[in-house]
């Protein structure tokens, strides 16, 4: 029985601490709020209970008192509870209140610090909060005071004249009041000031003005909550040090339609380039209900001259069954190994196998050409793959005289995760591109999203295809892709997005 108050950081998933990630991976219950990046939930163990207690559209799922009672109750069931909070739990996050409630209830707890948005947001905007030439101290201040109440908990005179850098949380609604109080209490109206909106996330943007003009300029440039207010001479460094806003895909909404098991590499690459990545796995990768046929094939591996792996998933599920039988890579010692694509080759290398053949073109037709050049007549070939897949490769090999045994090792099913988010972004104009990594992702995507709806928004939404086979499937739905790389690989597709978005 224990509760962990975990700071999830300001939004960039890479800013979660290693300790926070490790606790999430073992927790029995995860209680999270709106400001905690939902991607962190992927670290949860499969049987973890996940409970959302945030606020959307002005509605609270639970009151603070309800949240406190929930985490106490879950802990008293003997469970390990991860309370995931945006930023740092103790920095205007009411983590201290939750800790007190836990102590009062006799529940042990730990606080796992997180990177606060007050530091990370300005840093991504190129504003160091301290600098030897500009600032030697910082104040963190809530901007959420009611300007109509008598008196203030802030010492405005001290803030206006005594601290080098000021950072206001939750202050957009009161920005005119904050500006007025600082100037009336002695701050030069020309003091540099900035707004940082959704700092460190794909929605991140910033602007700089002066404390005198910031309220008006913020409105003109459409800044809303959540935005930090930064005041001080360090803001002068923004134009020079603003690295994050220079990323080539910053603010671009990109849908990745690959299965979640396959999408992580592409999603990470796009996120590093500043994109707002929406993982929309139109297919799920599931194990088979019965592996007896796979086990029989594994026991007869020495009969196969070639084993051809066409995907990372094929390798993973095949090796899972090797392990079930108490075998390892040595079981493939008598066979030559072909890998379709660099990602498949890389995972085979992780298993200790250097493929005997990797085609130059990563489509079935290119594979067939390369294998035929190696002489397939009379060869016995094993093809571990999805239960349903294109038949070009086995058919062409059979025409060349090979004996091909297709071995399903996993199956794909339609998925509907994130559908509503994609539709919202599409209708709001925030979606820039939908990427397709296979024909099945095209078909499943248009099962979930109407082709007519995409056609309505083609003015601002581009479609990206990994290669000609996928492109042909898009054409069946009435679309010509805007982006198709010369090499049919995920890295090449990412490079093409950078060039054309």
From TrEMBL:
Residues 266-494 form the Tetrapyrrole biosynthesis uroporphyrinogen III synthase domain. The keyword Methyltransferase applies. Gene3D superfamilies: 3.40.50.10090, Cobalt-precorrin-4 Transmethylase, Domain 1 (3.40.1010.10), Methyltransferase, Cobalt-precorrin-4 Transmethylase, Domain 2 (3.30.950.10). The keyword Metal-binding does not apply. Its EC number is 2.1.1.107. GO terms for molecular function: uroporphyrin-III C-methyltransferase activity. Residues 2-214 form the Tetrapyrrole methylase domain. One of its GO terms (biological process) is methylation. InterPro entries: 4pyrrol_Mease, 4pyrrol_Methylase_sf, 4pyrrol_syn_uPrphyn_synt_sf, 4pyrrol_synth_uPrphyn_synth, 4pyrrole_Mease_sub1, 4pyrrole_Mease_sub2, CobA/CysG_C, Siro_Cobalamin_biosynth. CDD domains: HemD (cd06578), SUMT (cd11642). Keywords: Methyltransferase, Porphyrin biosynthesis, S-adenosyl-L-methionine, Transferase. Belongs to the precorrin methyltransferase family. NCBIfam families: cobA_cysG_Cterm, PRK06136.1. This is uroporphyrinogen-III C-methyltransferase. The gene is cobA.
């Amino acid at each position: 029985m224990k509760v962990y108050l975990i700071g999830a950081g300001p939004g960039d998933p890479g800013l979660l601490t290693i300790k926070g990630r490790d606790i999430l991976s073992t927790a029995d219950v995860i209680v999270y709020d709106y400001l905690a990046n939902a991607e962190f939930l992927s670290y949860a163990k499969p049987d973890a209970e996940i409970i959302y207690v945030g606020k959307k559209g002005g509605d609270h799922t639970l009151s603070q008192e309800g949240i406190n009672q929930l985490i106490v109750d879950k802990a008293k069931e003997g469970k390990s509870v991860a309370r995931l909070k945006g930023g740092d739990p103790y920095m205007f996050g009411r983590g201290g209140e939750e800790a007190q409630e836990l102590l009062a209830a006799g529940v042990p707890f730990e606080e796992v610090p997180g990177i606060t948005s007050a530091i990370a947001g300005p840093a991504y905007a190129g504003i160091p909060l301290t600098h030897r030439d500009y600032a030697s101290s910082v104040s963190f201040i809530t901007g959420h005071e009611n300007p109509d109440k008598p008196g203030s908990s802030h010492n405005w005179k001290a803030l206006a004249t005594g601290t080098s850098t000021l950072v206001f949380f939750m202050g957009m609604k009161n920005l005119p009041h904050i500006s007025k109080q600082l100037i009336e209490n002695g701050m030069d109206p020309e003091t540099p000031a900035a707004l940082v909106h959704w700092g460190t996330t794909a929605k991140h943007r910033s602007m700089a003005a002066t404390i005198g003009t910031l309220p008006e300029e913020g409105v003109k440039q459409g800044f809303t909550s959540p935005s930090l207010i930064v005041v001080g001479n360090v803001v002068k460094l923004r134009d020079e040090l603003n690295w994050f806003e220079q990323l080539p895909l910053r603010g671009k909404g990109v849908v990745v339609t690959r299965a979640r098991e396959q999408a992580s590499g592409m999603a990470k690459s796009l996120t590093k380039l500043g994109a707002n990545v929406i993982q929309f796995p139109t297919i799920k990768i599931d194990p088979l209900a019965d592996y007896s046929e796979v086990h029989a094939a594994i026991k007869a591996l020495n009969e196969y001259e070639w084993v051809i792996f066409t995907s990372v998933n094929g390798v993973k599920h095949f090796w899972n069954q090797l392990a079930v039988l108490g075998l390892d890579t040595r079981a493939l010692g008598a066979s030559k190994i072909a890998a379709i694509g660099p990602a498949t080759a890389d995972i085979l290398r992780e298993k200790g196998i250097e493929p005997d053949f990797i085609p130059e073109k990563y489509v079935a037709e290119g594979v067939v050409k390369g294998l035929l050049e190696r002489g397939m007549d009379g060869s016995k070939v094993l093809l571990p793959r999805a239960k349903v897949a294109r038949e070009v490769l086995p058919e062409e090999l059979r025409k060349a005289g090979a004996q091909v045994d297709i071995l399903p090792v996993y199956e794909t099913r339609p998925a509907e995760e994130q559908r509503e988010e994609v539709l919202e972004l599409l209708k709001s104009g925030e979606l820039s591109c939908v990427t397709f990594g296979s024909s099945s992702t095209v078909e499943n995507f248009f099962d979930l999203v109407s082709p007519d709806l995409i056609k309505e928004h083609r003015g601002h939404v581009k479609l990206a295809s990994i290669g000609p086979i996928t492109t042909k499937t898009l054409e069946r739905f009435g679309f010509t892709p805007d982006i198709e790389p010369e090499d049919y690989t995920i890295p090449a597709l990412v490079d093409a997005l950078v060039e054309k978005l």
